[in-house]
Structure formats: structure tokens, C-alpha cells
Write a structure and sequence with these properties.
about 300 residues; alpha/beta; Arc Repressor Mutant, subunit A; D-Maltodextrin-Binding Protein, domain 2; five-stranded mixed β-sheet; 11 helices; about 45% helix; disordered C terminus; LysR_HTH_N; transcription regulation; DNA-binding transcription factor activity; DNA-binding; DNA binding
Length: about 300
């Protein structure tokens, strides 16, 4: 077996995370052709097929799954070593979704900077939950139905994920509160979770609905702020815009939450006082959010 190229392994890890060559190319600022060539060369070097190409993406073969697990662990080890050799404790990487970054984190960055003047916060945005083990000085915020099952992670529940429909205060609408049947008659702004489609189907509607689709919650919420319709998102994502009177709640999902939001970090926390401080700050901010939601 030939000596493997580290960049090819990083490319494979990115493709495995997205299950899509073009998304990996966009993240790594490479062409799709370059990504494909790196993967093919890695498969030749290993003598194994790692990916199955399909019309709408790629899937991992059993050998690809084993390779991804090994590569993720190796990259996490390298990340930890680089952190130890560099500015120990001064930079923390936070992994989270794009809408959580835009709507929850960004409004709090001034408070964060004042609370942690010595820490440089680096964010990495993901469309799916991070699959590799977290390295030292890394934190992840992610939605799920149970706590982090990986044995090398600590995890802490932050909040239940409750869905709320919102629109601009100036958007023409019936008086609040509304029944779902009434909400579904309005122009609907939908993100990649396709929540409105599920509610429409669950209500047994067969008529055509006015749906405007976006690939992330933050864009749908921005469209709602501009008065284009009604968006639906978790309470922790909309609370800042509601407090600033850019959005108003028009409907709250009556069912019990099926997912929670968690924060995870490596079990190397004994040597990570800055990480523990940031985790505690995140948890405190979510407690304040829940207090505001109960007003």
C-alpha cells in the first residue's frame, strides 16, 4: 500500500460528512473534479472502494465507513496536537448549524467577547451532526433525541426544541392566537426541514399551498421579517427577533417536543478550563432564553 496523502484523507472526511461531492467541493474551495480525483486516488492507494456514486450524492461502502471512523479519529488527534503546540486554551472551535450561528450566537458575540476577552472563538458550520470525535478545545451544539452516545464525549442538555410559527408584525393576518388550519391558509416560508409540508400532510390538506422554500431557517426567518409570509423554527432561534419586535408569534406547536438541543465537548475537560467556562456560559444563556419564553 502506498503512503497516503493527508489532504486526500481530509477530502474524504469532508465528502463522508456531506455525502455529496459538490458540497464538499464548496466547503474546501475545490472543484468537483478535483474532489473526485482525490477520492479515486485514495481508493487506488487503499485498494478498496470507499464510495458508491448515486444520482443525488454518494453513500459509504462498509470499507468507507471503517475508513471514515479511522480518519475522523486521526484528524481529531492531529487537531489536539496542533492545539497543544499552538496557543493553548486561547482558541476554541464551536461546531453548530448555520441558523443557530446566525440567529442565536451572533447576537451574543459582544457579550461573549466581554465575558471571555482572552478567547478567540472560531465557528465551523455544519448541515449534519459532526461524526468524528471532538478534539481538545472543541465544542459542538447539536439537535438530537438522546444524549451524545460517544464514550469520549461529555454532553449536556440545553433545551427542548419547540416549534413556533412567526411573521412580521406588519404582515396582514387574523388575530393571534390562530389555529393551525388558519395558519396554513397564509403564505408559508419553509426551510430544509420541510416542517410545513409535514403539517400540511398531517392536517389532511389536498389543496395547493403557497410555499416558498429556503435551505436554512435563518433565511426563512429573514424573509418573514421582510413580510413575505409565515416561517416556523425552534424558539431558541426566533427569540432574539421576537424580543426586538421584528417577529411575532402566531402559532405554537401543541405537541410535546421530540428533540432536544445538546452541547458536547471532549472528556479531556480536566485540561480545558476555557472549554468548561464556555460550556457553562452557553448553558446559562439557554436558561435565560427559557425564562424569557415563560413570560
Amino acid at each position: 500500500m502506498k503512503q497516503m496523502n493527508l489532504n486526500s484523507l481530509r477530502v474524504f472526511a469532508c465528502v463522508a460528512r456531506h455525502c455529496n461531492l459538490q458540497r464538499a467541493a464548496d466547503e474546501l474551495n475545490l472543484t468537483r473534479g478535483a474532489i473526485s480525483q482525490r477520492i479515486k486516488q485514495l481508493e487506488i492507494d487503499l485498494g478498496k472502494i470507499l464510495l458508491e456514486r448515486q444520482a443525488r450524492g454518494v453513500t459509504l461502502t462498509p470499507e468507507g465507513v471503517r475508513c471514515r471512523e479511522a480518519v475522523d479519529k486521526a484528524l481529531a488527534t492531529l487537531e489536539t496536537m496542533a492545539t497543544d503546540l499552538g496557543r493553548d486554551g486561547e482558541q476554541i472551535t464551536l461546531h453548530l448549524g448555520s441558523s443557530t450561528a446566525a440567529k442565536w450566537l451572533m447576537p451574543r458575540m459582544e457579550v461573549f467577547s466581554a465575558r471571555f476577552p482572552r478567547i478567540s472563538l472560531r465557528t465551523e458550520v455544519h448541515t449534519q451532526q459532526l461524526t468524528r470525535n471532538l478534539a481538545r478545545n472543541e465544542i459542538a451544539i447539536w439537535p438530537g433525541k438522546a444524549s451524545d452516545p460517544r464514550p469520549f464525549h461529555n454532553a449536556r442538555r440545553l433545551t427542548d426544541i419547540r416549534l413556533v410559527a412567526v411573521c412580521s408584525p406588519d404582515f396582514p393576518r387574523p388575530n393571534w392566537p390562530m389555529e393551525l388550519e388558519t395558519v396554513l391558509t397564509l403564505p408559508l416560508l419553509q426551510d430544509a426541514h420541510r416542517t410545513w409540508e409535514g403539517l400540511i400532510e398531517g392536517a389532511g390538506h389536498r389543496v395547493r399551498h403557497k410555499l416558498l422554500n429556503f435551505d436554512r431557517s435563518a433565511l426563512a426567518l429573514d424573509a418573514a421579517i421582510e413580510g413575505h409570509g409565515v416561517a416556523i423554527a425552534p424558539t431558541y432561534i426566533i427569540e432574539n427577533d421576537v424580543l426586538r419586535k421584528r417577529l411575532v408569534e402566531v402559532w405554537v406547536s401543541p405537541g410535546p417536543p421530540t428533540e432536544q438541543l445538546f452541547v458536547s465537548w471532549s472528556q479531556e475537560h480536566v485540561r480545558q478550563p476555557d472549554v468548561l467556562g464556555v460550556v457553562e456560559w452557553i448553558a446559562t444563556e439557554f436558561k435565560q432564553d427559557r425564562t424569557l419564553q415563560n413570560w
